[in-house]
Amino acid sequence: MIHLKTPDEISVIAKGGAIIAGLFGEVEGCVVPGANTRDLDVFCDEYIRAHAGAEPAFKGLYGFTGSVCTSINEEVVHGIPSPDRRLALGDIISIDVGVKLDGWCSDSAWTFAVGDVDAETQHLLAVTEQALEAAIEAATSGNHVGDIGAAVMSVVSGTGFGIIADLVGHGVGRVVHEEPQVPNLGQPGVGPLLRAGMVLAIEPMISLGSDQIRTLDDRWTVVTADGTRAAHFEHTVAVTESSPRVLTVAAEGVVSPT
Ligand code: MG
Ligand code: MG
To answer: Mean pLDDT, to the nearest integer, of 174-178?
Structure first.
């Protein structure tokens, strides 16, 4: 069942989303060679909890031990923060953050470069971010879920990059993962109808090579099957009667720290 949210509920989700946007602005300065992912996790946890009523939504979710997911290079999603995982110059790391504020969840991920990265990796980051932007633009009332995946495909097509098909976006609300699923592959006009009040996490995951994945023995970390790098950008978006509203951005009138 797809739950439609009221304007007041969407406002609360946007407040939580603004916390994530602020966090990304701050944590970027911590994404440096030598940093370990456990320290990044602690930074994120403390940043979120410094906001009254907010907690990290991923902590304990399905048994996950971190407060955020930290996925380096060929890791696509669900990397477990660890003091033993250190960033090196030229790496990329996606930080995936869920916030629960006053009972409502928001979900956003960003892939950061650790210093200068090679040109191919820069291209991957740019294409994945463009895919997210196009997908968000497709999240309009009257479109279908398939239009979102089709938008991702239109951006990635011709690059030679792989769209990870086995991982999908999702509805967001009282819990992090709700219906509908939001695949990154799709056909226009196919799938559930998008209606005002739907809140969706849209999250293309794109690799330099294979579109196939596997899960490591830690039973969490998802990596590309061929070991090539992957990028992941995600926003929580409300479908409205007019343009889609991105909820995981700085609050209006608040200057972003970056
Ligand atoms: Mg996420
Ligand atoms: Mg998500």
So the answer is: 97
